[in-house]
């Protein structure tokens, strides 16, 4: 049955901040399905900092930019409402690449997930944030009990999981976040050893106090104010996982990074990664994350916006730091 639905297209590449004229809301009609196709009614959409990078026409990126006029790209969860594909039956819950739209045509990357799994556990832990935290920490940083880890963007969806996993692995964990409320949440609710506000005028001294034995692992989610200070405290054989640089996504020219002299002299390993190159690790990541969840070692919080249109302004909460937890849109 053909239905009209709302979708949001990407119409203007931002040069700095994302403004409402970046998008246009349109009405589309669901297509008549061909053999092998299925139609998904999206129920929850994830808003991610990577969306800003998908808007950039950067030929070196890991993924093509969203084209002008295209429905804006997103990850999301939905229910199959019509199907000509026996692997995706009507009523099944699916997760994968969707788009800023109420209905989407199911794609080859979609996975069926158990309907009884809470959507928030799926989008806040088991899907992108958890896989990212798992790969960046366990596969790239390779932490050892007794070491000190500093994570930036610590109260965010990836950072909060990284810190809790590192605690579960026996590390000293220091989080860096942008508000006192977030720092309290990290220490009082998630059990971080310390949390520092990067807006503090005394950040260097506070960091030195929180990391008396230096820093062995720096999980970098943001760049910005703390980066050089943490880098300067890295111990010999320290590892830096470069997961994200949100402080630079909207800048025309990225901030200069730390010097390579220390990488040489301290024998540091600085390694970037993008999860699209690590989908083969989904089974072990899911197993590890489910284990932490079952033992009560992972807490999470979702910041839920209502209605598709809320994404247009809502995406900026990620850049102002006003999101408290994984930013989602409930459609
Ligand atoms: N490599 C990958 O495959 C991969 C996958 C997923 C995510 N990521 C990256 O991981 C990072 C975190 O993503 P997330 O989904 O967990 O988002 P998130 O942390 O839930 O939200 C973004 C947070 O970034 C902080 N922030 C914004 N501007 C900042 C600035 N100028 N300086 C310092 N902090 C700033 C804000 O927190 P405060 O209040 O603390 O400022 C904001 O809440 C992002 O850089 C993202 O691109 C990478």
From TrEMBL:
It comes from the Bacteria. GO terms for molecular function: oxidoreductase activity, acting on the CH-CH group of donors, NAD or NADP as acceptor. InterPro entries: ADH-like_C (IPR013149), ADH_N_2 (IPR041694), ER (IPR020843), GroES-like_sf (IPR011032), MDR_fam (IPR045010), NAD(P)-bd_dom_sf (IPR036291). Residues 21-329 form the Enoyl reductase (ER) domain. The keyword Cell inner membrane does not apply. The keyword Transit peptide does not apply. SMART domains: PKS_ER. Keywords: Oxidoreductase. This is NADP-dependent oxidoreductase. It comes from Pseudomonas alkylphenolica.
């Amino acid at each position: 049955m053909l239905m009209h639905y709302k979708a949001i297209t990407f119409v203007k590449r931002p040069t700095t901040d994302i403004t409402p004229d970046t998008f246009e809301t349109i009405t589309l009609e669901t297509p008549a399905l061909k053999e092998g196709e299925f139609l998904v009614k999206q129920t929850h959409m994830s808003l991610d900092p990577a969306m800003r990078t998908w808007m950039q026409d950067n030929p070196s990126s890991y993924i093509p930019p969203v084209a002008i006029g295209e429905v804006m790209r997103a990850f999301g969860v939905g229910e199959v409402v019509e199907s000509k594909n026996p692997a995706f039956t009507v009523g099944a819950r699916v997760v994968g690449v969707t788009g800023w739209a109420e209905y989407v045509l199911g794609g080859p990357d979609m996975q069926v997930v158990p309907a009884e799994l809470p959507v928030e556990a799926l989008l806040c832990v088991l899907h992108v944030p958890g896989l990212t935290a798992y790969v960046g920490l366990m596969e790239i940083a390779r932490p050892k009990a007794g070491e000190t880890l500093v994570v930036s963007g610590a109260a965010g969806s990836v950072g909060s999981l990284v810190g809790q996993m590192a605690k579960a692995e026996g590390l000293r964990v220091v989080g860096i976040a942008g508000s006192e409320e977030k720092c309290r949440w990290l220490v009082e609710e998630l059990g971080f050893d310390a949390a520092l506000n990067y807006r503090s005028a005394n950040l260097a001294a506070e960091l030195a106090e929180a990391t008396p034995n230096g820093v062995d692992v720096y999980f970098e989610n943001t760049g910005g104010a703390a980066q050089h200070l943490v880098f300067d405290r890295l111990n010999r054989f320290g590892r830096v996982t470069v997961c994200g640089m949100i402080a630079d996504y909207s800048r025309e020219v990225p901030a200069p990074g730390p010097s390579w002299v220390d990488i040489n002299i301290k024998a540091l390993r600085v390694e970037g990664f993008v999860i699209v190159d690590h989908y083969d690790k989904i089974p072990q990541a899911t197993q590890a994350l489910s284990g932490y969840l079952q033992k009560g070692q992972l807490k999470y919080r979702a910041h839920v916006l209502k209605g598709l249109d809320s994404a247009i302004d809502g995406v900026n909460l990620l850049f102002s730091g006003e999101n408290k937890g994984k930013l989602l849109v409930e459609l």
